[in-house]
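User: Could you write out the 3D structure of this protein bound to MV4? I've included everything you need below.
Assistant: Certainly. Input first, then the structure.
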Amino acid sequence: MFKKVLIANRGEIAIRAMRACRELGVSTVAVYSEADKNALFAKYADEAYHIGPAPSSQSYLDMDKVLDVAIKTGADGIHPGYGFLSENSTFARKCEEAGIIFIGPTSKAIDQMGSKIAARNTMIEAGVPVVPGINEAISDVDKASEIAENIGFPVIIKASAGGGGIGMKIVHAKDEFKSSLTSIQSVAASAFGDPTVFIEKYVEEPRHIEFQILADKYGNTVYVMERECSIQRRHQKLIEEAPSPAITPELRKKMGETAVKAAKAIGYENAGTVEFLYSKGEFYFLEVNTRLQVEHTITEMITGIDLAKQQLHIACGEKLPFKQEDITHRGWAIECRINAEDPLNDFAPSPGKIKRYRSAGGPGIRVDSGVHMGYTISPYYDSMISKLCAWGADRDEAIARMRRALYEYVVVGVTTNIPFHKAVLRSEAFKEAKLTTHFIDDNNIIEEVKKVVEEETEKGITLASVLDTKEQKVAAATAAVSSYISAAQKQTK
Ligand code: MV4
């Protein structure tokens, strides 16, 4: 096992990685920016080093600064978390060269997923189903337009260097094709420095289903159930669940084995995710995420496997301790990402100081968070306050627990998306698991969020105004919090 691991990240995921380290007796090193000097994760670590100003380019993304701290502190591993340097093959290579283990896949595996066209071809060769489309870069506009017509509209133009939803455009008819192509090429050139694009048939109203995989250095690769991440807004996931309500045991086996095939095709090791689009009984490979994802928690809740600790075991050369048939699952888990953002104002970020805070708890609840009362959410980074996860013996119990927990959760000082989650969780469509990537629009969720907020205001259970006027009076605040919880719980029904 490692002696000392540097965590090249911030917030809740830095704490998640450090928790795994602590349970394994591994020392931890945090690096933090000026904006994070009072953040919990920096205090949680055994050692913490300031590495630069708030803008990520001068701190969390500065590879040499991060590596320098790792070398000086004698860290033998670096956990990259998600985002920042986690899928940066140059950083993985620099770690390899410095003799420090990058806790993730090899730089080569990351590179192989970097070009979407190359990835598509690798998967086709490996026998992994992809969306019908073309397998080479578009060079000739007229030829491409002809191909699009053959594939059949709507088609989607994607940047080869893109991913996660940036650099794509849906084209509904031939007369839009040329202008769409030019526009997406220029987006790709400026966003990724590479104008290369390709086309696929556009799969309408798909479900987003992803398989967790774990692979050791000896070719042992397993899938660890799937997650459904269909409730998203502009490619920002908001609610995820595991297992997927769309998946039967037979389909799970088929898709899981396909995910393993995809991972093996690129010599994948460590924890990763294979994303699929699923529509009308068919599934198509989309991409591989070469990192531990935000939503890994719900997989942990249904399988009992600690994915962050498995990452450490794998990275230091241990064999996977289980085979595919040893992996079992129990019950259902849902994650709501609690963000400081205003769902009634186009989800605008709402950074600022958290004046009052009480997290949810009780049976089946897991909250991963990097914040606390008095913490100031910085405008420099993502607006996530926490990941609120609920486990139940079945989907209905998981939903009931999540609804109960959402009404226990108290955040004052910043606007949160908690009303959004309340609206989704009480909708018929969610209860019936009618999930697609268009869920929010298709089900008028924003209208429902307005109702949630109005109902709460009418019943006097919004805390903010009460507390703002009595901020100095701790006793009054305490009373307000408990009466809030009491009133809010009744609202769950
Ligand atoms: C697609 C698609 C439909 N057809 N490809 C979005 C993220 C990026 N990884 C690929 N994405 C999509 N690719 C074809 N051929 C629809 C999406 C898509 C989507 C995928 C997963 C989750 C949410 C999404 C929201 C909009 C579009």
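Residues 174-192 form the longest helix (19 residues).
User: Perfect, thank you.
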